[in-house]
Design a protein that fits this description.
The complex is a heterodimer.
Chain A lengths: L1 H15 L3 H34 L5 H10 L5 H12 L14 H25 L3 H9 L4 H11 L1 H17 L2 H7 L9 H10 L3 H25 L3
Helix pairs in contact in A: 1-11, 2-5, 2-8, 3-5, 4-5, 4-9, 5-8, 5-9, 6-7, 8-11, 10-11
Chain B lengths: L5 E12 L2 E13 L4 E5 L6 H8 L7 E6 L2 E2 L5 H8 L2 E4 L10 H5 L1 H5 L5 H10 L15 H13 L5 E5 L7 H16 L3 E5 L3 H7 L2 E6 L2 E6 L1 H6 L1 H8 L6
Parallel strand pairs in B: 3-8, 3-9, 6-7, 7-8
Antiparallel strand pairs in B: 1-2, 1-4, 4-5, 9-10
The chains are: A mainly alpha, B alpha/beta.
The structure holds adenosine-5'-triphosphate (ATP) and magnesium ion.
Chain lengths: 228, 244
Amino acid sequence: MQEIWGGFVRAIDLIITLNAQVVEITTRSLYISLSSAFLAAVICVPLGGLIEFHSFRGKKILVNLIQTLYSLPTVTVGLIVFLLISRSGPLGSLGLLFSPWGMVFGQAILVSPIMIGLTVTALAAVSPQIKDTARSLGATEIQIIVTVINEARQAVMAAVLLGFGRALSEVGVAMMIGGNIRGYTRVLTTSIALETSMGNLELSMALGMILISISLVINLLLNRVQGR
Amino acid sequence: MRMAFLEITDLRKTARQGQSLVDILKGINLTVQRGEVLALIGPTGSGKTTLLRQIGLLDGPTGGRIIFDGVSMAGAGERALLQARRRMAMVFQKPVMFRGSVQGNVSFGLKVRGRNDGERVRSALHAVGLSGYEERDAATLSGGEMQRIALARALVLQPELLLLDEPTANLDPKSAKSIDGIIQSLASENITVIMATHNMQQCRKLADRVAVLLGGRLVKLGRPDEVFGDREVCDQMLCSSDGI
Ligand SMILES: Nc1ncnc2c1ncn2[C@@H]1O[C@H](COP(=O)(O)OP(=O)(O)OP(=O)(O)O)[C@@H](O)[C@H]1O
Ligand SMILES: [Mg+2]
């Protein structure tokens, strides 16, 4: 017990004194997960709009499928992306394996279902009258879509934030695609796993506290955009 | 003979209600001249809103066609529809506001056309008696204010054809009167107005012609005095507390 308490105090010390390793890992983690959330948002928000604004056969099934993928195990995504970008895979020539960009790619795929699904839900909640009103005032189809997304912007932002939170806290893709290479692809979650297994509890605890704090901030932001 | 501004031929609309299909419009024939004020009356559920939505090119018909200023809208492409829509404006029965300020709402139609003219927004707001409302959050407006902003949002576009779905239903008598005044002045500017209404006095005062809808059919069309003088129309549906 005393050992844990001592580790806890030293962990706080590591944070307060802005230990170089702690800062470096935190920065990389934020950088990679923000990039993946951004990449995913740029693709998934318009894609969600495309799904919501078109009626086609199997739309319900597709949306159900997407929602099922919300809780896709991160190691499964890790495996799939690994197969895609490993040297003999279809995207092997890009050299993404064991690189930060590979992690960004993998995390973007991981959070895509959440972002697409929640975007569809957000847009579906906008009154159909908004569409009619925009159309009757002379908006083009694209202007109508932009108008509806703007009406739902808080819920769409929440979808992106949730995706970011999932990317930041996942460990499967980061470990399998990034490879946990020190100073290159090592992020908060993979460091915690590694340092704990090596008995380096103070560093683990410091990183763990930072991860929790960031999640807390994300949650506060979520509440804020949702106007609660 | 001069070509009609709006020519509606055998217009039909079928819609799904649960498991069954119902005919909402059952073959409407109607011609409207430029500059005319036409009132659509009829009991609730008779198809007034459905017809206005057809004329506003918001829904496609199940059958028949609409010719707008000489161009058939049946099978017209998205481009042609947009072009035609941009010459009209519609105010809905229960208007909704876009998120943001009154200014943003009223200038919406100008912005989507790549224009933004603060002066025109101001004068449209003045016309509906809501000068100085530019910065108000549209979500905080009262029902009657929203209805008038919705009218300003349409007027600012200076449309050739204005479609109004019960424009004064939510208004107090004074505001209603000022809206009637606006409609009257539109008529003098040769703007065509088609409005659905339950208010017979408004019909008498404003309409050049009255079209009576009943169960998706146009059962009577004529000058207000003709229509309201018709015993049968009266007996069927109209004569009530409106005092005609
Ligand atoms: N999209 C739709 N799907 C199914 N039924 C519809 C649809 N729109 C309208 N209807 C039905 O068609 C009929 C005519 O509706 P409409 O809204 O045109 O009536 P209205 O004359 O405007 O009535 P009110 O005076 O109450 O506004 C109603 O019975 C309505 O329930
Ligand atoms: Mg109606």
